[in-house]
Design brief:
Helix content is 41%, strand content 31%. It has a four-stranded antiparallel sheet with strand order 1-2-3-4, with helices on one face. It has a three-stranded antiparallel sheet with strand order 5-6-7.
């Protein structure tokens, strides 16, 4: 899929997210060493958590685009950095799920492709999910 072709639109993680995750990993290691008090377990656990956070940041660098749409269908992230093409005829439903609990509202964009369900949050797409759902519905309607 050519990102410059007409009718193509992409949503990606915010550009600053990998840097924030890397800084968080650095802070974890620093806190692990600072509070070690001679115990090797604390810095080791902090290091392990930091590796997980750095891996998560690496995914954001390697595959920043989480969702793309064009007249032929959708492209979603699959696995660590793979892509999966979903032609429009395989997409059964696109809906925005809102849940409120204890005064907080969580939104999830759900794309049901029959055999697979793809879930996206606000931080995955760096856009309001209702706008993304509307853009997907418009693209689907234009495709016929």
């Amino acid at each position: 899929m050519d990102p410059q072709s007409p009718g193509t639109r992409q949503w990606r993680v915010p550009r600053e997210t990998p840097a924030v995750k890397a800084l968080g990993a650095l802070a974890l290691v620093a806190l692990g060493v600072l509070f070690a008090g001679g115990d090797p377990i604390r810095p080791a656990l902090a290091g392990l958590a930091a590796v997980g956070l750095l891996t998560w940041a690496l995914r954001d660098l390697v595959a920043p685009v989480r969702l793309a749409v064009d007249p032929d269908g959708l492209t979603v992230l699959r696995g660590f950095a793979g892509r999966r093409r979903l032609p429009w005829h395989t997409v059964e439903q696109i809906q925005l799920d809102r849940r409120s609990r204890r005064g907080l509202t969580a939104e999830t964009l759900e794309i049901d492709a029959g055999e697979s369900l793809h879930l996206f949050g606000r931080r995955d797409l760096d856009a309001p999910l209702d706008e993304v759902a509307e853009a997907l519905a418009e693209a689907r309607a234009a495709a016929g």
